[in-house]
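SEQUENCE, STRUCTURE TOKENS:
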Amino acid sequence: MTVKTLSTFRNYVVEFEVGVEFEEDLKVVDGRKCQTIVTWEEDQLVCVQKGEVPNRGWRHWLEGENLYLELTARDAVCEQVFRKVK
């Protein structure tokens, strides 16, 4: 699977096999490396990143025309909602 994050400020592309742990190099994002595993939990794609920051990861899921992204790090949670352009 490939996840692309493209923005005005920086781009990040990660390729992985679902259910297989791998070393993720996040130097373009925040300069660190971590052990990452992405799995399916029902209809959500769930990422767990093991490293220096506890409880770090994200979830993606679809509801109708919306794509949700929930990011976690320590006790903080950020939720973004993307709408399909028609």
Observations:
- The beta strands are 2-6, 11-15, 22-26, 32-41, 44-50, 56-63, 66-73, 76-83.
- The two ends are 25 Å apart (CA to CA).
- The chain is about 0% helix and 65% strand.
